[in-house]
Specification:
The structure is a single chain. The chain contains nine helices and no strands. With 250 residues, the protein is an all-alpha fold.
Length: 250
């Protein structure tokens, strides 16, 4: 029992710490984007987007650093969860645990791509715009489509798959209490966000429905995901504290 308690305490603490670090990193990038204001709110407008990059290069770079920090925290959390889940009955690492962990690593890789684009783009795009405004706008569209619309959206889906898989497997293996299942709608909504374009087309005649769906997605993004991370971190810290109490005194 003492050895088992020690094997649980370390990874539980690491996973909990990584989840807590993930919260501000997850929120920082979109919050920094709010510095765009109404004038630059349309991120699909290359002229407005390029002007925002020129005027707020620091905010863009900081948002990229936040994305990289989120990727690092995600890798640490996923690795610790993989260890924890593998040590729970029935013991051996299963293909399901590996698949869930792979989703997190894929999401982290996409976040690295998105973060690197944000960090490296302001200077080169500004230089291109000085040479030829059309080149600058084209470069911005490439960064926006590859980084924001591509890598960031893909990362969101991969992370949502990891979150859902962690909840299901951890509860089944009694790593987390059964009531944690109430958090399952958070990753499910993120997964459903992939149908956002289809939803917007289907509800074009019903703007109220589309507006309600957008509000739900924003609530999940800004409240649901941080809450998911915080609740799981607290559960793991409680478990680590219980394991510590079972250790024999020095």
């Amino acid at each position: 029992m003492p050895a088992g308690a020690e094997s649980v305490r370390g990874p539980s603490t690491v996973a909990a710490t990584a989840l807590l670090v993930l919260i501000p990193a997850w929120l920082a990038a979109p919050l920094l984007e709010l510095t765009r204001g109404d004038r630059f709110a349309d991120t699909d407008d290359p002229a407005a987007g390029l002007e925002f990059l020129e005027r707020s290069a620091g905010a863009v770079v900081l948002s990229g650093i936040a994305v990289l920090l989120a990727a690092a925290a995600l890798v640490v959390a996923a690795s610790a969860f993989e260890v924890l889940l593998a040590r729970q009955p029935p013991g051996a690492t299963t293909s399901g645990i590996r698949a869930v962990s792979a989703s997190a690593y894929i999401g982290a890789g996409l976040l690295v791509l998105a973060g690197a684009l944000r960090i490296s783009s302001p200077g080169p795009l500004t230089h291109l715009a000085d040479l030829n405004p059309e080149w600058g706008r084209t470069g911005y569209l490439v960064m926006h489509l590859v980084g924001t619309q591509g890598a960031t959206a893909g990362a969101r889906l991969a992370i949502a798959a990891w979150m859902l898989g962690v909840v299901i497997i951890a509860v089944r293996r009694r790593l987390l209490p059964a009531w944690v299942h109430v958090l399952a709608p958070v990753p499910i909504v993120l997964l459903l966000s992939i149908v956002g374009p289809l939803l917007s087309m289907a509800t074009a005649a019903e703007p109220v429905v589309g507006g309600a769906a957008w509000i739900v997605l924003m609530l999940v993004f800004f409240v649901g995901v941080p809450l998911w991370c915080a609740v799981l971190a607290v559960c793991l810290l409680v478990r680590a504290r219980g394991a510590r109490r079972r250790l024999p005194p020095d």
